[in-house]
Design brief:
The protein is mainly α. The chain is built from 18 helices and two strands. Helix content is 77%, strand content 1%. The longest helix is centred in the N-terminal third of the chain and has 37 residues.
Length: 483
């Protein structure tokens, strides 16, 4: 690996620079998706002729772009340098945000969202790799805490800001608001980030690139169409079948290629495999409720997007309050117990939603979600730290691409399952019935599924090898690759 240093700066300054740029970029990326969902009705009204299908492609266009660039991001960062690729991604995302805000039609907006996805697809994996390279293995719980800031806080903040911005300034400003933050992160990145290049990155793998893009794209498309057409619809079944088939072919092809674009060999490590499996269930549970809860608060309780966001925001406060506690407990307790207990308690906390009614005081929801946030700090921080605990510095970029791919699929899977279950329950309500209690009870089944996902994650977390993960704390301190 070639390391190209900037001018005399201390390691702590390097870490602060990477952390600042990463958190700003990832906060924009993750929050953007939540805000766009909030603003879709306003976008449709503004363009008048925007059909539900047209509006859906404002979201799907972004997801299809992610499907292309997330798997390739690890190789791109290694081949061309993480600083160059990250800054290119950040620049593309920021410019595309400006173009989205200036769009004059649904078609233009969809095209610019696809462009925005090019940046978003590379920012997360490459930025994560940069962040992990700044810390030796025994300090990676700090990285998990940093990653939890945008991952958990942005989805909670999005509905609040989306409501304020859409109601007060108009939907175009949900994109324009990215500009000052994108420019700030870009300037800091140009001045302070250091370049890393992997001299043995290998040649471009066109077969892996095409198959990964088509497979992930088909799976994400199918999962996101479940909410519109249901699991039994022909387009959904064909899309998922195509995605899974291409995924199987991708695995066969990548195992035979000397320099594959996806480093599937990393799954030989049991810790990396089990943390990714656990992350699937944890991510599905977390992001599933992130979508379902606002739907209930706005659709059944009649809250505005802003009030709905303020009701769910205490979850983020809980995460922030417990993040440092989780980080300090990680080397003492180990990820297996922290993650398992966190998911079990989170599951039981979410069960409390089963006893709520349409008349339940909003502060009860806030208390439940606050308690849920406390639990999630003990899940995502050790989960992300453990996932990369055995990864060698040269493999960090490839591991980050795999982890980001898994997380994107898991998020879409959780949302698809919960939405389809909700639609099935709502369809059972007779057309002549207008009692809110019936509609409210329909949401209790997807609430239950968030608990099931959490409990399944707790089971898989028991197979994470604590001794192997914590072995880095028993070894002599090894400097990070850039200190």
């Amino acid at each position: 690996m070639t390391e190209i240093r900037g001018r005399g700066i201390y390691a702590i300054s390097d870490r602060a620079a990477v952390a600042t740029v990463f958190v700003i970029a990832m906060f924009m990326d993750i929050m953007d998706g939540t805000i766009v969902n909030t603003a879709l009705p306003a976008i449709g009204n503004d363009f008048h002729h925007g059909t539900p299908t047209d509006l859906a492609w404002v979201v799907l266009g972004y997801l299809m772009s992610l499907a292309i660039w997330i798997p390739a991001s690890g190789w791109l960062g290694d081949k061309f340098g993480t600083k160059k690729v990250f800054l290119f991604a950040l620049f593309t995302f920021t410019v595309a945000s400006m173009l989205c805000g200036a769009a004059n039609s649904i078609d233009q907006l969809t095209a610019f969202r696809f462009l925005q996805g090019i940046g978003g697809g590379m920012m997360a994996p490459v930025g994560t790799a940069m962040l992990y390279r700044e810390y030796p293995p025994m300090e990676r719980a700090k990285v998990g805490a940093l990653l939890s800031i945008p991952t958990l806080l942005a989805p909670a903040t999005g509905p609040v800001l989306g409501g304020f911005i859409t109601d007060g300034l108009g939907w175009r400003w949900i994109f324009f608001v990215n500009l000052p933050f994108g420019i700030l992160a870009f300037v800091i990145g140009v001045l302070r980030l250091k370049e890393y290049q992997h001299e043995a990155a290998g040649k471009f793998d066109p077969a892996g690139f095409v198959l990964s893009a088509l497979s992930l794209g088909a799976i994400l498309y199918g999962l996101n169409q479940v909410a519109v057409e249901g699991w039994n619809s022909t387009p959904v079944l064909l899309s998922l079948a195509l995605g899974i088939s291409l995924g199987a072919l991708l695995i066969l092809v990548e195992r035979r290629i000397a320099e594959p674009i996806l480093a599937l060999r990393l799954f030989r490590d049991r810790v990396f495999t089990m943390t990714n499996i656990t992350s699937v269930f944890a991510t599905a549970s977390f992001f599933g409720l992130v979508l379902i809860m606002p739907l209930m608060l706005q659709g059944v309780r009649g809250l505005s997007p802003t009030d709905s966001g303020l009701t769910t925001f205490p979850q983020a406060i809980g995460v922030i309050l417990m993040s440092q506690v989780a980080r300090k407990l990680y080397p003492k307790v180990g990820p297996r117990r922290l993650i398992s207990i966190g998911l079990i308690v989170a599951g039981f906390v979410m069960l409390l939603l089963m006893w709520t009614t349409p008349e339940t005081n909003l502060w009860v929801y806030r208390a439940i979600l606050f308690a849920r946030g406390l639990c999630w700090a003990f899940v995502f921080i050790p989960l992300q730290a453990a996932a990369f605990s055995q990864i060698q510095p040269l493999d960090t970029g490839r591991a980050s691409a795999l982890f980001s791919t898994q997380r994107q699929v898991a998020s879409s899977l959780g949302i698809a399952v919960l939405i389809s279950v909700l639609m099935a329950q709502l369809d059972k309500i007779p057309a002549q019935v207008h009692d809110l209690a019936y509609a409210y009870n329909a949401y209790k089944v997807p609430f239950m599924w968030t608990c099931i996902f959490a409990f399944l994650g707790a089971v898989t977390a028991f197979f994470i090898d604590d001794d192997k993960v914590l072995s880095v704390f028993r070894k002599p301190s090894v400097p990070s690759t850039n200190s």
